[in-house]
Amino acid sequence: MADNAYQQMVFINLATKDIDAAKKFYTELGYTINAQFSDENTASVVISDSIVIMLLAEQKFAEFASKPISDSAVANEALICLSAESRAAVDELCDRALAAGGTHAKDPQDYGQMYGRSFQDPDGHHFEVMWMDPAMVQG
């Protein structure tokens, strides 16, 4: 088990065809770009204190990858799921994503105590946004 004083972080590395368009998309969702870890080929998108999306121009991403880059417009390389604090927050983030140039990924899923929607960013990366009733989590 991890030490409570240490907060483990998650860095999600995604290839992008257009770094400037990707930065614009994520800032329109309300996230910030950490300039300290960004340059002309990289953008560090701060999702939360412990989650960062590293957007990498395809040639930069290829320097780190040991396999070919999948074309996320036609194949899923991952499903990235972000939690939301309410059903309304799920809708708000997904609606902002669609307004900012993202595309609809699949129909909403409503299970009463769980609710989710999804979108794809301009590069085709698939994001799920999910709310779960806190009473369900507590058991």
Give the CA-based shape: globular
Strand content: 25-35%
The number of distinct helices, counting runs of at least 4 residues, comes to 4
Order of helices and strands: EHEEEHEHEEEEH
| Fraction of residues in helix | 10-25%
Tell me the distance between the termini. 21 Å
Radius of gyration: 16 Å
Structural class comes to: alpha+beta
Largest sheet: 5 strands, mixed
Low-confidence stretches: none
How confident overall, as mean pLDDT?
93
Q: How many DSSP-defined strands?
A: 9
Short description:
The chain has 139 residues and is α+β, with helices and mostly antiparallel strands. It has helices spanning 19-28, 58-64, 87-99, 134-137, and strands at 10-16, 32-33, 42-46, 51-57, 79-83, 103-104, 109-110, 114-120, 126-132.
Explain what you see.
- With 139 residues, the chain is of the alpha+beta class.
- The chain is built from 4 helices and 9 strands; from the N terminus they run E-H-E-E-E-H-E-H-E-E-E-E-H.
- It has helices at 19-28, 58-64, 87-99, 134-137; strands at 10-16, 32-33, 42-46, 51-57, 79-83, 103-104, 109-110, 114-120, 126-132.
- Strands 5, 6, 7, 8 and 9 form a 5-stranded mixed sheet that branches.
What are the SSEs and their pairings?
Layout: E1 10-16, H1 19-28, E2 32-33, E3 42-46, E4 51-57, H2 58-64, E5 79-83, H3 87-99, E6 103-104, E7 109-110, E8 114-120, E9 126-132, H4 134-137
Structural descriptors:
four-stranded mixed sheet, 4 helices, 139 residues, alpha+beta
